[in-house]
Amino acid sequence: MERVRVDKWLWAARFFKTRSAATDAVSGGRVHVNDARVKPSKEIRCGDTVVVTVGQVRRTVDVTGLSDKRGSAVVAATLYAETAESIAAREQAALERRLARPVGADLGARPTKLDRRRLESLRRAQRRGVGR
């Protein structure tokens, strides 16, 4: 096998769970081959550089093998080699996400039953005051 469609290769290399998800990613501009935006029908060869963005994770990989059939994860790992810069950037981003405060952390503790009753009382009083 000399060339494979980029969407089939991304699916076979297990970057995406379905081929249609891989096709949508390529069509949406989240996949670049040799620094160029491509269509799903673009054929790739060994030695090409592929930049894939899945969610917030951006990977730069060199194509080392070709396959148009999805195999095990062990086989999929032989189809590409991730660059050292990509690995370092991915690990740095993961570290920053872990250290970031989760959404809603600044809201404080969950309200107690007494707090909820006071809030409801306040809301009822405001609704009565608006209707007058």
Brief synopsis:
By secondary structure, the chain is α+β, with helices and mostly antiparallel strands. The protein contains five helices and seven strands.
Describe this structure in words.
With 132 residues, the chain is α+β, with helices and mostly antiparallel strands. It has one domain (4-99): Structural Genomics Hypothetical 15.5 Kd Protein In mrcA-pckA Intergenic Region, Chain A (Roll), CATH 3.10.290. It has 5 helices and 7 strands. The chain has helices at residues 6-12, 19-27, 73-77, 84-99, 113-131; strands at residues 4-5, 31-33, 36-37, 43-44, 49-54, 57-63, 80-82. It has a 5-stranded antiparallel sheet with strand order 3-2-5-6-7. A two-stranded antiparallel sheet has the order 1-4. Strand 2 (31-33) and strand 3 form a beta hairpin. Helix 1 (6-12) crosses helix 2 (19-27). The longest helix is centred in the last third of the chain and has 19 residues, at 113-131. The chain is elongated. The mean pLDDT is 91.
